Every structure is written in C-alpha cells, then in structure tokens.
Amino acid sequence: MTKLEKITPQDFVVSEWSGGKTTQIAIDPPGALYADRSFHFRLSSATVELEESNFTSLPDYDRIIAPVEGELSLFYKGSETPVILRELECAAFDGAWETRSRGKVVDYNLMTRKGVCRGNAFALIVGVGQTAEFCCQSGEPGRSVLLCWCVQGAAELGAGGETVALSPRDAARLQTEAGAPTVAVKIRNKGDSPVRLMVAQVSFLS
Questions:
Q1: String of b and e for 148-162 (b: at least 16 CB within 10 Å)?
Q2: How far is the C-alpha of 139 from the C-alpha of 175, rounded, in Å?
Q3: Is the overall model pTM greater than 0.85, yes or no?
Q4: 82 preceded by cis ω (within 30°)?
Q5: How far apart are CA 182 and CA 138, in angstroms?
Q6: Per the omega criterion (within 30 degrees of 0), is the bond before 194 cis?
Q7: Which of 1, 81, 136, 148 is deepest in the core (most CB within 10 A)?
C-alpha cells in the first residue's frame, strides 16, 4: 500500500533561532514537537544569517545537511579542516558531534532517530522538457517514507498511479508499507527553467 500527499508552505511550521529562521517541512509522527526530541524524523530548511554558528547537540539523531543557496563549511569535533559543501551537496554526520558552520546559506536538513529509522538524501536536477525516474523501495522490516522538496522550478511528481503538482518550496510525501512492491517515481519538468529538488528516503527499522 502506498500513499502520496502534497505538502505546501501553508503546512510548514516556522520558528526563530539565534541565527535566523527554521522552516519545518515534515515531521514524524505528525504533530510531534521538535523541542521534545521524541520525533522519528524531521525535514526542515533554515535560513542561516550568521557567518558562523554552532549546531545544537542532538545525540539521539543522525543528520544530513545541504546548502540550497550559498556555500557551507562544516567543522566537526573541533577540527580546523572544514568539509566544504557547494549548493545541493550533502553531508551526513552524527548529531552528537560538536559541529560548527561557516557561511550564510539556506540549508536543507534531515534528522533521523538512531535505532528507529535511517535516512539518505540526494539532489535531483531535471532539465526543461525532461523527465527523471527513480525507485522507492519499501522498508525492511518497516515502512518507508520518501520526501521530495522542490527548491526551484515547476514539476509534476507521479507515483503509484497518483500525481501531484509541485511549485517552488512545495513538497511531496510518499509512504510505502513494509513488504510493498517497489514504486517507480517520475518527476516531469512542467516549466521553462530547470527543476531542482532535494529527495530523501527514510526507512524504518521495525
């Protein structure tokens, strides 16, 4: 069984932090609060207005981050040698690590709870008049959630016989139950400029 739903900016939760604003795109379970630190996964985007900032310690979570606007340098565990991320490049790291960043950016941030689920993420660019296709596999032994966030452009996402139209900043969530057949996901560019998306898949461990 699969379920496809569209998430629009009207559904987002926006909050302030010391270095800018954070926009929560999706959280599981629905209605969970970030501040309680009991969520399974959280997808968000932050506007970083400080040249340097320190990340909140999240020892129960693994993290993936990518700048969608600007260039970001990450310094882990007191290192002076940065991991440099250009636009749409992802880095995965342990939320328990002491991490600081350099660069004023708009970022993409996936958090997954250790021992509950695991995630991966990648950027997808679809040219004008083009279609891209990839597969969403069900989690073993748990369910799987695919999250597609449209950073730029206009796209149509189709999966499991359903379609949703995505404008900039819209997202789509596709959930498949454990043992469900692999689902083909198609992204069609519906505009006159390239589509840029961030794609994440979260697989539950039970």
A1: bbbbbbbbebbbbee
A2: 10
A3: yes
A4: no
A5: 6
A6: no
A7: 148
Helix (H) or strand (E) holding 173: strand 171-176
Cβ pair 95, 152 in contact under 8 A: no
Residues in the chain: 206
Chain position carrying tokens 């968000």: 44
Confidence at residue 2, expressed as pLDDT on a 0 to 100 scale: 86
- Beta strand ranges found along 77-169 (DSSP E): 83-85, 91-94, 99-102, 106-113, 117-126, 131-136, 144-152, 155-159, 162-166
β-sheet bridge partners, residue 150: 197
Where do we find the tokens 């002491």? 98
Ordered DSSP codes for 14-68: EEEETTEEEEEEEEESTT--GGGT--SEEEEEEEE-SSEEEPPP-TTEEEEEEEE
Q: Which residues pair with 67 in a beta bridge?
A: 107
- Give the C-alpha separation, 82 to 78, whole Å: 10
Chain CA centroid to CA 113, Å: 14
Tokens matching residue 97: 């690590």
